[in-house]
UniProtKB/TrEMBL annotation:
It comes from Pseudofrankia inefficax (strain DSM 45817 / CECT 9037 / DDB 130130 / EuI1c) (Frankia inefficax). The keyword Transcription applies. Keywords: DNA-binding, Phosphoprotein, Transcription, Transcription regulation. The keyword Aminoacyl-tRNA synthetase does not apply. SUPFAM superfamilies: C-terminal effector domain of the bipartite response regulators, CheY-like. This is Two component transcriptional regulator, LuxR family. The modification 4-aspartylphosphate is found at residue 52.
Amino acid sequence: MRVIIADDSVIVREGLRRLLDVEGHEVVELVEDARAIPAAVAHGQPDAVVLDIRMPPTFTDEGLRAALSLRAAAPDLGVLLLSQHAVPEYATRLLAGGARATGYLLKDRILAPRQLSETLGILAAGGTVVDSDVVAELLAARRRDDPLARLSASERAVLGLMAQGLSDRGIAERLFVSVNTVGTHVGSVFRKLDLPSGATDNRRVLAVLTYLERR
């Protein structure tokens, strides 16, 4: 496999090249500045590009932006982003336009030649590889952003029955509680989901839509 390595650290570049050499891959270009990546790809015609997220000139997200540009220009090109830390925002941006032939790994995951080689093989076949720590951070972020997480167990039960079309009386009968108790839970659901004040029927619809979207 023909590979381009893009990282501002000469130690990392040479280390990755040696890992790939051991597995029989051909490193066709070594790049230290994100601005040089497009020309390197055009010249080297690689099967995959391995690049750091933070690269010159500003050491912010140049590598990520380069990866997105490469994906747009060559969807079948394997693109593997490496990072020191698991950053959910980077993973979300990287995968937002599609995950084909795309990977995001922490640098300490690729110390073994076979692991790096197998990852590039997956990308070359159109697959996706995302570091387990990154996945964990993404799930944690989603839980933090989930409005249903604000609800108590009783409120979630009431909302679930609302989604089935039950009235307050029907919910009360199903849960063996009073209608007033259901009304209290419904009011709490509206408040915790930050639903705008207005007709109760409209708020019930909005609450149910939120519930269905998050299931």
